[in-house]
Write a structure and sequence with these properties.
heterodimer; A: 472 residues; alpha/beta; 2 domains; 11-stranded mixed β-sheet; 10-stranded mixed β-sheet; B: Rossmann fold; 6-stranded mixed β-sheet; 39% helix
Chain lengths: 472, 273
Amino acid sequence: MSTDILSPTIAADPVGEINKYDFHTESKPVFRAQKGLNAEIVSQISEMKNEPDWMRQFRLEALEIFFSKPMPKWGGNIALDFQDIYYYLKPADHQGKTWDDVPEEIKKTFDRLGIPEAEKKFLSGVKAQFESEVIYGSLKDDLAKKGVLFTDTDSAVREHPEIVRQYLATVIPSNDNKFAALNSAVWSGGSFIYVPPGVKIDFPLQAYFRINAERMGQFERTLIIVDEGASVHYVEGCTAPMYSSESLHSAVVEIIVKRGARCRYTTIQNWANNIYNLVTKRAMAYADATMEWIDGNLGSRLTMKYPSVYMMEPGARGEILSIAFAGAGQHQDAGAKLVHCAPNTSGQIISKSISKNGGRASYRGLVKVEKGAKNVKTNVVCDALILDAKSRSDTYPYIEISEQDVSVGHEASVSRIGEEQLFYLMSRGLTEDEASAMIVNGFIEPLVKELPMEYAVEMNRLIQLQMEGSVG
Amino acid sequence: MTDTLKIDNLHVSVEGKPILRGVNLTIRRGETHALMGPNGSGKSTLGLVIMGHPKYEVTAGTMTFNGVDILDKAADERARLGLFYAFQRPVAIPGVKLADFLRHAATNVRHPERKEGEELMPMREFRKELKGKMEQLRMESEFARRYVNDGFSGGEMKRAEILQLAMLQPKIAILDETDSGLDADAVRLASQSIAEIGREKMGLLIITHHDKLLEHNPPDFTHVILGGRIVETGGIELANELHTQGYDRIREMYPDAEAANRQMVEKEEPVVA
């Protein structure tokens, strides 16, 4: 390799690329539950999945909790009719083992997302979720030999019930919040990963998620257990086609990082502008374990998402890097939570938000230090970039400290794209649009450089599309 | 025809306050001009107005490049015509690598007809050229990977400006105190670098307080600006006189301009508590 002093080009894409994520393949679900939500539908979902009785009970209890909890009064405005949503679709009647088994229509959708190429080039294990069920997956042999389990969560319930039962809902119980309860009642799909002690996976495990049916909620449930001294990087990307009616995405992601283990969870979400994206993500990190969330939120009508790390034992570390881009008609209420439950734990939150063309980006974050958690170090940096006078940015930092011997830093900045920065770049021949896009890409560079290469390229492209899409 | 920037009776205000009051200046490719003057006399304003900074309002006068009116053109269009301004205080663009920025800039300036989204100049060609220019300027190649002006020392900023000058090869370049913030050796290196880039290929307007930058770039013309207008133009001997004797003679000879200058300095630099 030559010494390369250049990073990949900021994609300045031809018009053809703009429509890349805006298409809809006709798919014919094999089974579709009726619209709406009640105990009968929940039981039906459980039955369709051939679930054990404990899981059906889990769902039904969660449904009661969901009905009993009021809608959250903070965050964004949620205008949803829960009875006007399909809660379960199963597009293929069995899970594809190889690419050849995957139905043609669905392949077409994946082709347009570039998944097969991506797999050839880069991926060792792909789990792709189309609508509610994981329909295609492959896992590299040596991972299986090492005892790594990587499957969809439905299969895990059947194949590894003892592990699922041991950990499911221990990080995020059904009564945590209304949407966690909803997910617990109607969940479908999601990834299940178990990494045995000492096993270090040195390439990212990846999954693509995609909502592809009108008025269909997607409620994946992801459970990751990284056993002592093990490490894993899980990458999840989402693109959704555009639809005119509301759609709901409400996932739950639970992660357990045991002593000395390490987990990084990277998400890039680019939902269509009518989707409510209400997600609960939480990790528990034990002694000397490290949990890192990298969370990129583009698109959606409203996103409420605050990846959390609970540092349960001494030496645990939590890091959260969050980015949000709010365009026209979008509200990104995103942030992070660090909860220090033990001494000598450390954490960092870096949040960057961009709002443009009337979009609203809110940072909402919590740093909590429990009594007895001495010698805690934690730092929060949140930067907002507002691209025009119509757009808005808010910061809601909550800090609760019940211990003296702690170091908690908080810095926040809000800036508008500076006239001086624009002039500087334009004086070197860049047009105003090129200069703005360059400044925005630079602003999110700290996140993008943490991404695997293909995601970095896609992220820059998505930003470019967001910038172009809001012109005029 | 020699590329020519012609400024005629230029009046400029910021927020309604006049700063330039009738500047006349013609710069041809191949000529070196020094622009000197005390603080607050309008030196940087003139440079920024030539480049098209939106903050400044031109209230009277004309500015043409090769006979074409450029006052209505945005900064990027002026850059594509071949104008360049080396900033006195360049701003940081965090997260944008100098090399990426320069590749984009060089492509646009060299291909003024390029549309947004069209290909940039080939990576290999650009990289080779950048490497060569950086070696010429005795810069570490690592420097190109850093974010534009982000955390740069004063000296690094100025060298980055000179690198941009070398890469963009403008027809007319304004160097705004490119020597300030540099130690004596660095100034010598900077002035040598400018000379090596090819002074004869550009029209240069060097805004400076010191004589070091002019050492390798002896001016064909020296202009003295006071109170927002050029009050005197001479040769290199005028630059030498100002270096050794200061502006006392100028201030005495042009009392109106001196009064205007004093007024501007008071407005510009309020007493800091």
